[in-house]
Records
---
Amino acid sequence: MRKSLKYFANAAATVALCATLGLAGPAGPAAADTPGIPSVGHDWASAGPYTPNVSIGLVHTLYYPRQLGARGEKHPAVIWGNGTGVLPGAYTSLLRHYASHGFIVLAANTPASNFAITMRSGIDLIADKAASPSSVFYGKVDLEHIGAVGHSQGGSAAINASIDDRVDTAVAIQPGPLNDVDLIDEPVLYLAGQADAIVWPAIVRAMYEDADHVPAEYLELRGATHFGTAINGGDMRGPSTAWLRYWLLDDPNARTEFFGASCGYCTDTQQFSDFDRNDLALQIPG
């Protein structure tokens, strides 16, 4: 389930060799698993092609496409962590947005998510539902591709959740400091707000710099505050969606936003006040 870092180290050389020999490049990690999830071009911040459903349970709130498996596709899972003192309803538009792009979101119903215990149990929940013939999720979940995402304390929790071997990537949105990046080996996107007075950009950048053993990128959203992420994700909605679509769906348009010499986000100084990617991320071809 977890992508090997050897894949990233050899990716650029493999693509170059294929081009020299006139062969197609390597298939993306999830290309064969999600044949029916449609492209959205580069419109990451707009709603995707699916109508979201919401199911509120005791431990998790589920956000998922109403048309599960309509094209024969399986849907990747995303476990979500809330900021301090709030429940998934504080991010309802953002989580519905992820569902509209084809993801099944397991949002932990806890205002204290930092240790990611409830987040990780969301994987068990969706695995059980995917195996139950009486469930709408039966046979429609891509358990080989799972992301961890969260905001503030939940952003720290997304990193902590990634110690789980079943998690393939993390998006840490303005994450708090109580985590240990050295314990994970998944690619991580760090999102900071230029005007964030709660979790300063320098704090998020320091976490990014500590993640030199995994492919990692740092995006600082121009003018973004800490609380602008609530409800609809604010300026964090588009980049976080694109990252998930690349790592969990192998979306080639999403790849070009983050990777390659002239990637879309590299040159977007209007949206981002700072952008950086480490050596392992630089080895991934655009």
---
Amino acid sequence: MTSIQHILLSAIEATANEKELEWVKTKANSDVKAIQIAFVSAPRFIRKVAIRIDEKVLHEAVPNWQIEEWTLERLVRVYLLLHIPSDQSEEYVKNIETLFDTAEINELVALYSALPVLSYPEKWLFRATEAVRSNMGVVFDAIGFGNPYPFLHFSELAWNQLVLKCIFNDKPIHLIVGLEKRANRKLAETLSDFAHERWAADRKVPAQVWRLVTNFMNDTILADLDKLFQSNDIQNQTAAALVCSETTFPGAESLLENYPQLRASVQKGQLSWKQLEVHQLCYV
């Protein structure tokens, strides 16, 4: 049994009742066809209850994989996937693809949730980018939030599409694994353009998105920050103050000096991006 299989089994053992645990162990040690059938039929035998997981141990094996809010059913499905033999890449991919091709929504959630621990990660790039385009909220969330696969494997274009879709739909971008590490100039410029479009339509821009422009400032974005300071919206002002305090772009420090109360709050550590995080998941 691999390390990640052992970790997930420990979580199952901590949550499942005796009957459920016996079913899981029996199915996991079956042939591929039986595992595939068990993956589909899991809701008939496994409850949708909250799991208990040792996050420290999990993150030592798979950094940044957030599964603490999963149900037991979802966990069991992912655990079953890890028992499909992977020694022959072509056969392995075929077996996983069969599940993708026939999956209903909760099965898709489990499949996309499993991407960080499936073998041959490069084989799932098309599937993963398809999930980003999905109109099914829970499917998008399975790839977008608490999932390290996009951070590790997406191209810059695919990454930016993921972040922008979250922003367009007012989803909580801070839940994207590696959000600030994969910030890039193209994304920062697109966010500025997006802000101009929203402002022209008299609509707001989520304040926390400005955290992504800090290392990619230009004169246009500096002017955007000036607009945020003047908006009389405390969240916008907080975002502008944080960017100005974090960037080395010429003019940002002097801009912040025009707002001594905000500057003092930043220096005292009273302002943070965490205050601007949007936590609700709304499905669109």
---
Amino acid sequence: MAKTKVKTRILDVAAKLFYTNGYNATGINEIIAKAEIAKATLYHHFKSKEAICLAYLEQRHSTFIKGLKVYVKERPTGRLQLLAIFDYLREMYRNDEFFGCWAIKTFCELPQDNTQIVALIQKQKKELLFFLGEVVGENLKNLSIAETEKISGGLYMLYESAITESHLHKDDWPIHLARSIAPSLYGNAIEKTKT
């Protein structure tokens, strides 16, 4: 049990530093100092900074996607479920510790030959895209696969832009704007569903 607590503490400290300060700006010695552990203890749990980063990305994505799925299911079907990702993002933005997308921030700091972290980020982004496809499919009936992909892809692109731009501008107007544009992606389709 103690080992799990130490590993969790290391990951929590590293996650906060990676997200607020950036992956490159966070050194192993800083993680060790803030976690109040010995260097050997860190390397007992994680073989490298990259291993810590992979665990951090897994943890952040898992928390995000689980929270988003619950949030969407709690909304009435139809329009509100289709817009839920923007409402969820707005709630994330209102958190004092919002620094944009943890995955994209990390990706932008990596050399392109770091294939392991890049592959994980791509996998996680695809999981979000596929989930949005499920939301579209459940809320807009009788769509072709191409229509579903176009709408879910549009929602995904609006979300990705909104999370980045809201962090850049330190304002939530990009989230509100993305949310207001989203219905233009499926306006006719939602009317078809009602009939």
